[in-house]
Design brief:
The complex is a heterodimer of chains A (506) and B (768).
Chain A lengths: L2 H21 L4 H29 L2 E5 L8 E5 L1 H26 L7 H17 L3 H20 L4 H32 L4 H7 L3 H4 L3 H15 L7 H5 L5 H26 L4 H25 L3 H22 L2 H32 L10 H4 L1 H14 L6 H15 L3 H27 L6 H5 L8 H20 L1 H15 L2 H8 L8
Helix pairs in contact in A: 1-2, 1-4, 2-3, 3-4, 3-11, 3-14, 3-20, 4-5, 4-11, 5-6, 5-11, 6-9, 7-22, 9-11, 11-13, 11-14, 12-13, 12-18, 13-14, 13-17, 13-18, 14-16, 14-17, 14-20, 14-21, 16-18, 16-20, 17-18, 17-20
Chain B lengths: L2 H19 L9 H16 L6 E8 L4 E7 L1 H24 L6 H20 L3 H19 L6 H32 L4 H4 L3 H5 L4 H15 L8 H4 L5 H10 L3 H14 L3 H23 L4 H22 L2 H32 L15 H15 L5 H14 L5 H23 L1 H4 L16 H19 L1 H17 L15 H18 L1 H4 L3 H5 L4 H23 L4 H23 L13 H19 L3 H21 L3 H22 L11 H27 L6 H9 L8 H9 L1 H33 L1
Antiparallel strand pairs in B: 1-2
Helix pairs in contact in B: 1-4, 2-3, 3-4, 3-11, 3-15, 3-20, 3-21, 4-5, 5-6, 6-9, 9-12, 9-13, 11-15, 12-14, 13-14, 13-18, 14-15, 14-18, 15-16, 15-17, 15-20, 15-21, 16-18, 16-20, 17-18, 17-20, 17-22, 18-22, 20-21, 26-30, 27-28, 28-29, 29-33, 32-33
The chains are: A mainly alpha (506), B mainly alpha (768).
C-alpha cells in the first residue's frame, strides 16, 4: 500500500462508514453492525498509519495530485498519526457504547452516520497540512457535533447546543479572518509553505494579527481561559455516548491545532507569545479545577476538568522544549483515553441510578466493586496518581517546567494537581463510599433495565489501557519524544510536504 | 530479582478477596510476606557492611524513571521490618476481622500497601521511589476510609490524602531539582554528589521541598494532625501503616539523602527544630488522651520527632541511635497497637478510663502488652532501653547545643514512658473497674495475641543480644546511610555513665507522670480546643469550596450573551495588545475611487447589522443577519464571483433555517435594563468591529510573497482543463475542501431532518 493510500484511508473509511450507516438507517440492526465494523476498520487503518509513520518519519499525500503548495496536502507526522490512532480508538469505543443507547431507541438512527462524520472531521483536522482545509474540517466537526448535541431534543440540550454553536461559530469567524489575512499576505495556505515564508524574522511582526486571530480561534476550540464557556455549558446535556466522544476528542483538536501552529506555520510568532501562553495555561488550569470543585454533578465536574487539563497541555506547548512537547503529546493521548472513560463510567452510573447528582448517589463501592475499579483507575489517573498514565503526563510537564526554570507556572501545575485529586475524591467519596441514600435494599439492585455489557466493555478496555500505559508505557513515551523531536525541528516535515515543488505539474 | 517480592505481594493482594470468600484459612495468605521476609533475610545476612546488590530495568527512561532497585543496609533493614511485621499483621487482620464482609478488600489493600512500601525502601531511583511513595499515600487513603459509610472516616481519609499528597507534590519538585542538579536519578549516585548539590543555586529550594514532603509523610509539626485522625482506620492498618512502616518513609528518605543534603544550617537547623517540636507536641497532646489508639498515635508522633531530630544532628552516634530507635519502635509500637485492637475486640472499648484488670481474663495478651510497654518505656534489658541510652549518648557527645538536646530528649522520653505504661500496663494491671457492658471478656484467639507477642519477644531478644543485632543489622544500616562503616559496636550496657543517670531521671519523671495520669485526663478538652494547624486545614478546605463556587458563579453564569461578550473582549484585548506592542496601523485615508454599488451594499450590510442590535425579537435578529449575508453575497456577485455568491446564499439560508428551529424554543429577547451594561456592550461591539476593520485594511496593504493563485490561473486550462479558474479551484485544486463542505451540508440536512422529525412526532403525540 502506498503512503498516500494509507493517509487517504483514514478519511475514506469514516466517509464510507457514514454513508453505509445512512443507507442502512431503516434497518437499525444492520446499521449498528456497520457502525461498529466501520470503526474497527478505521482503527486498523490507524494502526497501519502509525506503524508506517514511525518507520518513515513523515508521510505526505497530495490531494487531487497537485503538488504542494498548489493543491491540498495531507501530512502524517508522528504527532498526527498518534492522534489519528487515539481518535480511532475513541471512535470504536463510542460506537460500542452507543449500541446500548440505540437499542433502547433513545438515540435516533442518525447517531452512527453523525459519529462517523464527526470522526472524519477529527481525522481530517489531524492530517491536513493546509490551513483552509483545517478550517473545513473544523466546520465538519462543528456541524456534526452540533447535530449530535441536539439528538434527543431535550430542552436543556437545545439550550446547551445553542451556546455551543454560537461560541464556536465565533471561533470559526476568527479563524476565517485569520486564515484569510494570512493568505492575503503570504499568498499560500500550505502550512509548510507558510513556515518557510515566515523564516525571515523581519516579516514576523506583520503576521501577528493573523496569528492572534488564529490563537483565539484555536484557543476557543481547545477550551482555554477565557474562551472555554461553551464546554461546561453543553457537555452534560446530551446522551452519554455523545458527550464521551466530545470530551475525548473535540478540545484536543484545538490543542492539536495550537501545537501544529506554534511548531509550524506560526512558529515565527511564538517567542513573542510565549509568556502570554504560559499564563493562559496557568489560568486555564486554575479556573477549570475551581469549577470542578464547585459542582456536584458527575458530568459537570468532569467537564470542568477537561478545561483544567487543557491548561497542562498548553503549558507543555508554551515551554517548547523537547521534553515539554513530548509531555504535551503524551498528555493529549492519556487525556483522551481517560476522559472518555470517565464519561463512560459516569454514564453507567446514570444508567444504574437514573441520576448523576452526587447527593442522590451512594453505595456503589459496596454493591458494585467492579464499577468502583472502573471509576478509580481513570479518576486517579486524572488526579496524577502514579503509576497510572496521568502521572507520567504530569511528570513530564513538571520536569520540563523546572528545567525551563518556570518556577511559578510549575508550582501552579503541581498545586492544581492536588485540587484535581480533591475533586476526583469528591466523586469517589460521594458516589462510591457514601452509603446509598435510598437504603441498603434498593442499593443492591442495579436499576438498569437491560444488560450493561455494551457500556461496560469499552470502559473496561479503556481502564486496562490506562493501567497498561502506566505500567508499561515507556514505549509510548518514547514515541511521544520522537514526535516532539519532529515538532522541534520541522525541516523534515517541510521537505516531505514540498518535496515535489520543482516538478510542478504531476 | 528485587522487583519480584513487590510483584509477589501485589499478586497476593489480588487473590485475597477470593481467598476471603473461600474455605481456605485466610491467615495462610501470610505465607507471601513470610516468604519475602525469609528471602530478604538470607540476602541481607549475606550482604557485607557497605555492600549493595543492585539491578535495573528500563521504564520511562526519558523522564528519568527506571526500575532501579537496590538492597543496601538501611533499605534492607526496613524491607525486613515491612515483610516481617507485615506477615504478623496479615495473620492478625485475618483474626481481627474474621467473618467481616470486607476482610478481602482490607487484605487486598494491605497487600498493595505492603508491596508499595517494599518498593519504596528498595527503590534506587528517585522517580521510582516517588511512584511508590504516592502509592503508599493512596493505599493509606483507601485503608483509613475502610469504614467508608461513616462520614467522619471519609473526611479523615481525605485529610490524610491531601496532607501527604500536597507534601508529595513538593517532594516531587524537590526530587526533580535534585535529579537535575546531581545529574543522576539514581539515589546511590546522588548521595555521592553531595558537593555538587550543595553548591547549586537551587539547593535551598530543593532541600526545603524534600523536607516538606518528608515532614508531611512522617507527620512532623505542623503537618502532624492527619496522623491521629488516621486512627479511624481498622487497628491492623494503624499498627502497620501508621506506626511501623509508612510514617517512617519520610524519616527513611531524610536519612537516605543526608549525605547529599546535610552540612548546612538549613538542613540541620530545620530538622532539629521540626523534630523537637514534634517530639514535644506529641508528648503534650498524648498525655491527655484516653483512647488507646490515640495515645499510641501521639507517641508515634513523638518518636518520629526524635528520629527527625537525630537525623538533624547527623553525627555517627546520632544516626546509630536513629536506627536503633526506629527498629525498637517498629517492634514495640506495632505490638502495642495490636494489643489495643485485641482489647477493643474483646471489650468493645478503647477508653482507658473504662479499662482495668484485664490480666486475669486475657493473660497472654497482658504479657505481650507488658513486654512491649517495657521496651517502649526504655526499661533494661529491652531494646527500647538501648535506643534511649544511645540517644542520651548522642547528646552527651555533642559539642554545641548538647544541653538543649538532652533536655528535649529527657522530657520527651519521660512522656513516652508514662504513655507506654498508660497504653500497655493500665488496661491490664490497674485497679480501674472494667466497664464493658454486655460482654464477658475472655482471651482472644491465637491470631490476635500471637503476632503482638512475637514482636514483643523480639524487642526483648534484641535487647539481650544487642551486640549481635548491632553487627547484623544496625551496623549495616548505619554504614549504608553514612557511606562509611560504623566505628563502634552496639551494646546494652555502658557502665555507670551520664546516659545511665539520665535514664534513671527519665524513669523517675515518667513514673511520676504515670501515677498522676488521672489528674491530667480531665484537661483534654481544653488542650485540644487550642486552634492549631488542623483548624487551618479545615478553614482552607471550607474556603476552597466557597471561593470555587463564587468564582464559578461569576464566570460560568449560564448567560450566553455574557459568554459571547467575554470571548469578544478577549479577542479585542488580543488585537489591541498586538497593535500597541507591534504596531502595524493601516493607512486610513479614503481615496476618490469609490464605486457606488459596493458602497450601497456595504451601507445596507452595516445598517442590517445595526438593526440586529436593536431588534426586539430573535426572529428579527436572524432576519437582519440574513440581510447582511445576502448583501455580502451580492458583493461577491459584483466582484464577478457568482459561484461564491451562490454558495454563500445557500449556506446562509440553511444556517438561518437551522438556527430558527433552535431559537423557536427560547424565550423572547430581554432588553438590557441597566444602562451601564448596555453601554459596555456597545463599547465592546464598537471596539471589536473597529479592530476587525483595522486589520482588514492593514491586510490590503501587505503582500509579502507572490500568491499561488497566479500559478493556479496559469495551470487552469492546460493542466486542469478548465477555463473558469474558480471552478477549477473548487473541483480540482481544492477539491478536498469542496468535498468537506458538501459533507457539512449533508450533516446540516440531517440536523434539519431530525429537528423536523421531532416536531412531527410532537404533533402526532398531540393528535393521538
Amino acid at each position: 500500500m502506498s503512503d498516500a493510500t494509507i493517509i487517504f484511508l483514514q478519511l475514506v473509511i469514516p466517509v464510507a462508514g457514514a454513508v453505509v450507516c445512512l443507507a442502512t438507517g431503516r434497518a437499525p440492526r444492520v446499521q449498528r453492525v456497520c457502525g461498529v465494523l466501520g470503526s474497527i476498520a478505521a482503527l486498523m487503518a490507524a494502526v497501519l498509519l502509525v506503524a508506517r509513520v514511525d518507520d518513515a518519519g513523515v508521510l505526505a499525500a497530495q490531494a487531487s495530485g497537485w503538488a504542494a503548495p498548489y493543491g491540498i496536502t495531507l501530512v502524517a507526522d508522528r504527532l498526527a498519526a498518534g492522534m489519528v490512532l487515539v481518535a480511532a480508538l475513541v471512535g470504536l469505543a463510542t460506537a460500542v457504547y452507543g449500541l446500548r443507547d440505540v437499542t433502547d431507541g433513545r438515540l435516533p438512527w442518525t447517531f452512527y452516520p453523525l459519529l462517523h462524520f464527526l470522526l472524519l472531521g477529527v481525522q481530517g483536522a489531524f492530517l491536513t497540512g493546509d490551513l483552509f482545509n483545517l478550517y473545513v474540517w473544523f466546520e465538519v466537526m462543528l456541524v456534526a457535533s452540533f447535530v449530535l448535541l441536539t439528538l434527543g431534543n431535550g430542552r436543556a440540550q437545545l439550550e446547551g447546543a445553542l451556546k455551543y454553536v454560537v461560541l464556536n461559530i465565533l471561533a470559526s469567524a476568527l479563524f476565517l479572518v485569520g486564515a484569510g489575512m494570512l493568505y492575503g499576505k503570504l499568498g499560500t495556505l500550505n502550512m509548510a509553505d507558510i513556515a518557510i515564508k515566515l523564516q525571515d524574522p523581519s516579516e514576523v511582526a506583520l503576521l501577528h494579527t493573523s496569528g492572534i486571530l488564529l490563537l483565539a480561534a484555536f484557543g476557543l476550540k481547545a477550551g482555554i481561559f477565557p474562551l472555554f464557556f461553551w464546554l461546561p455549558a453543553s457537555y452534560h446535556t446530551p446522551r452519554v455516548a455523545v458527550s464521551a466522544v466530545f470530551a475525548g476528542l473535540l478540545t484536543k483538536v484545538g490543542v492539536y491545532a495550537l501545537i501544529r501552529g506554534y511548531t509550524l506555520f506560526l512558529s515565527g510568532t511564538f517567542e513573542d507569545l510565549r509568556s502570554l501562553l504560559i499564563w493562559t495555561a496557568v489560568a486555564t488550569m486554575v479556573v477549570g479545577v475551581l469549577g470542578a470543585a464547585a459542582h456536584f454533578e458527575v458530568r459537570r465536574i468532569l467537564s470542568f476538568h477537561i478545561v483544567s487539563q487543557i491548561g497542562y497541555m498548553v503549558l507543555g506547548l508554551a515551554l517548547m522544549t523537547p521534553l515539554a512537547l513530548a509531555g504535551a503529546v503524551f498528555y493529549i493521548g492519556h487525556h483522551i483515553i481517560v476522559k472518555t472513560n470517565l464519561f463512560f463510567v459516569g454514564g453507567i452510573i446514570e444508567e444504574m441510578r437514573g441520576s448523576g447528582e452526587l447527593g442522590r448517589l451512594g453505595g456503589l463501592y459496596r454493591n458494585h466493586p467492579w464499577l468502583a475499579v472502573l471509576f478509580f483507575v481513570p479518576a486517579f489517573s486524572l488526579g496524577g496518581i502514579p503509576p497510572l498514565s496521568g502521572f507520567w503526563a504530569k511528570l513530564a510537564i513538571v520536569e520540563a517546567g523546572l528545567e525551563a526554570e518556570a518556577w511559578v507556572a510549575t508550582a501552579f501545575a503541581l498545586g492544581v494537581g492536588i485540587l484535581t485529586l480533591f475533586s476526583m475524591t469528591k466523586i469517589w467519596m460521594e458516589a462510591f463510599w457514601k452509603a446509598d441514600p435510598r437504603g441498603e435494599e434498593a442499593a443492591a439492585r442495579t436499576g438498569a433495565r437491560k444488560p450493561l455489557a455494551p457500556l461496560v466493555l469499552p470502559a473496561a478496555a479503556f481502564a486496562t489501557i490506562t493501567v497498561v500505559i502506566g505500567l508499561a508505557g515507556g514505549e509510548m513515551f518514547a514515541y511521544a519524544m520522537r514526535a516532539a523531536d519532529q515538532l522541534m525541528d520541522n525541516a523534515i516535515y517541510i521537505r516531505t510536504v514540498l518535496g515535489g515543488l520543482e516538478g510542478g505539474v504531476p | 530479582m528485587l522487583l519480584w517480592p513487590v510483584l509477589l505481594l501485589a499478586a497476593a493482594g489480588l487473590i485475597s478477596p477470593y481467598v476471603a470468600r473461600s474455605r481456605i484459612p485466610v491467615w495462610l495468605l501470610a505465607a507471601a510476606p513470610a516468604g519475602v521476609f525469609a528471602w530478604l533475610l538470607s540476602s541481607y545476612l549475606r550482604l557485607g557492611v557497605g555492600e549493595t546488590t543492585a539491578e535495573s530495568l528500563g521504564w520511562f527512561d526519558p523522564l528519568g524513571a527506571s526500575l532501579d532497585f537496590v538492597l543496601d543496609g538501611f533499605g534492607g533493614l526496613l524491607a525486613l521490618l515491612i515483610s516481617g511485621v507485615g506477615t504478623l499483621i496479615v495473620i492478625y487482620a485475618s483474626g481481627y476481622l474474621a467473618g467481616h464482609r470486607d476482610l478481602g478488600r482490607l487484605l487486598l489493600l494491605l497487600f498493595f500497601f505492603m508491596a508499595s512500601m517494599l518498593g519504596l525502601v528498595l527503590a534506587d531511583n528517585v522517580i521510582l521511589l516517588f511512584v511508590f511513595w504516592e502509592l503508599t499515600s493512596i493505599t493509606s487513603y483507601l485503608l483509613v476510609g475502610f469504614n467508608h459509610e461513616d462520614k467522619a472516616a471519609r473526611a479523615k481519609a481525605l485529610q490524610a490524602l491531601l496532607v501527604t499528597g500536597a507534601g508529595g507534590l513538593a517532594m516531587l519538585a524537590g526530587f526533580i531539582l535534585l535529579g537535575t542538579t546531581a545529574e543522576s536519578w539514581r539515589l546511590s549516585e546522588i548521595v555521592q554528589a553531595g558537593d555538587l548539590v550543595r553548591s547549586s543555586p537551587v539547593y535551598g529550594a530543593l532541600t526545603a521541598c524534600i523536607i516538606i514532603g518528608a515532614a508531611a509523610k512522617s507527620a512532623q509539626v505542623p503537618l502532624h494532625f492527619w496522623l491521629p485522625n488516621a486512627m479511624a482506620a481498622p487497628t491492623p492498618v494503624s499498627a502497620f501503616l501508621h506506626s511501623a512502616t509508612m510514617v517512617k518513609a519520610g524519616v527513611f528518605l531524610l536519612a537516605k539523602l543526608s549525605p547529599a543534603l546535610d552540612g548546612t544550617l538549613l538542613w540541620h537547623g530545620s530538622l532539629s527544630v521540626l523534630g523537637s517540636a514534634t517530639l514535644i507536641t506529641g508528648a503534650v497532646l498524648g498525655i491527655v488522651q484516653t483512647d488507646l489508639k490515640r495515645i499510641l498515635a501521639y507517641t508515634t508522633l513523638s518518636v518520629l520527632g526524635i528520629l527527625t531530630l537525630l537525623i538533624g544532628i547527623g553525627t555517627e552516634l546520632a544516626i546509630k541511635s536513629m536506627v536503633v530507635f526506629l527498629l525498637g519502635h517498629a517492634l514495640y509500637k506495632a505490638a502495642l497497637f495490636m494489643v489495643a485492637g485485641t482489647v477493643d475486640h474483646e471489650t468493645g472499648t478503647r477508653d482507658v478510663r473504662r479499662l482495668g484488670g484485664l490480666r486475669r481474663a486475657m493473660p497472654v495478651t497482658a504479657v505481650a502488652a507488658l513486654l512491649a510497654a517495657f521496651s517502649k518505656a526504655g526499661f533494661p534489658p529491652f531494646f527500647g532501653f538501648v535506643g534511649k541510652e544511645y540517644v542520651y549518648k548522642t547528646g552527651t557527645a555533642l559539642d554545641q547545643a548538647g544541653t538543649a538536646f538532652i533536655v528535649v530528649a529527657v522530657v520527651g522520653n519521660m512522656f513516652l514512658l508514662a504513655l507506654a505504661l498508660k497504653a500497655g500496663l493500665h488496661p491490664f494491671w490497674s485497679k480501674t473497674p472494667l466497664d464493658a457492658p454486655g460482654r464477658t471478656v475472655h482471651e482472644a484467639p491465637w491470631s490476635l495475641w500471637g503476632p503482638p507477642l512475637a514482636l514483643a519477644l523480639c524487642g526483648l531478644a534484641f535487647g539481650l543480644a544487642a551486640g549481635l543485632v548491632g553487627e547484623a543489622l544496625v551496623g549495616k544500616a548505619v554504614a549504608a546511610i553514612r557511606l562509611e562503616p560504623m566505628t563502634s559496636s552496639l551494646s546494652l550496657w555502658h557502665g555507670l555513665s551520664l546516659p545511665l543517670v539520665l535514664s534513671v531521671v527519665t524513669m523517675a519523671g515518667g513514673l511520676l507522670i504515670y501515677a498522676n495520669r488521672r489528674l491530667i485526663w480531665p484537661h483534654r478538652g481544653r488542650i485540644e480546643a487550642v486552634p492549631g494547624p488542623s483548624s487551618v486545614y479545615e478553614t482552607m478546605v471550607g474556603n476552597l469550596a466557597e471561593v470555587a463556587k463564587r468564582k464559578t458563579r461569576i464566570l460560568q453564569s449560564g448567560a450566553l450573551t455574557r459568554y459571547v461578550a467575554i470571548v469578544i473582549a478577549a479577542a479585542t484585548f488580543l488585537l489591541g495588545w498586538k497593535f500597541l506592542r507591534f504596531g502595524g496601523w493601516p493607512d486610513l485615508t479614503i481615496g476618490p475611487d469609490i464605486e457606488i454599488l459596493p458602497a450601497v451594499l456595504c451601507v445596507l450590510a452595516a445598517g442590517a447589522a445595526l438593526g440586529a442590535t436593536i431588534a426586539t425579537s430573535r426572529l428579527g435578529v436572524l432576519v437582519a443577519l440574513g440581510i447582511v449575508g445576502i448583501a455580502i453575497a451580492l458583493l461577491f456577485l459584483h466582484y464577478s464571483a457568482p459561484d461564491l455568491a451562490i454558495t454563500q446564499i445557500l449556506v446562509e439560508a440553511l444556517t438561518v433555517m437551522l438556527l430558527m428551529l433552535v431559537v423557536y424554543k427560547l424565550p423572547p429577547v430581554r432588553r438590557e435594563p441597566r444602562p451601564g451594561v448596555a453601554a459596555a456592550k456597545w463599547a465592546l461591539a464598537a471596539g471589536f468591529g473597529g479592530g476587525m476593520t483595522l486589520i482588514v485594511l492593514q491586510a490590503l496593504e501587505l503582500q509579502v510573497a507572490p500568491s499561488i493563485s497566479e500559478q493556479l490561473a496559469t495551470w487552469s486550462y492546460p493542466a486542469a482543463h478548465g477555463r473558469n479558474v474558480v471552478n477549477v479551484i473548487l473541483v480540482d485544486f481544492r477539491a478536498l475542501d469542496t468535498f468537506g463542505e458538501m459533507i457539512v451540508l449533508t450533516i446540516a440536512a440531517l440536523g434539519v431532518l431530525s429537528l423536523l422529525a421531532r416536531r412531527k412526532r410532537k404533533r402526532e403525540d398531540a393528535g393521538s
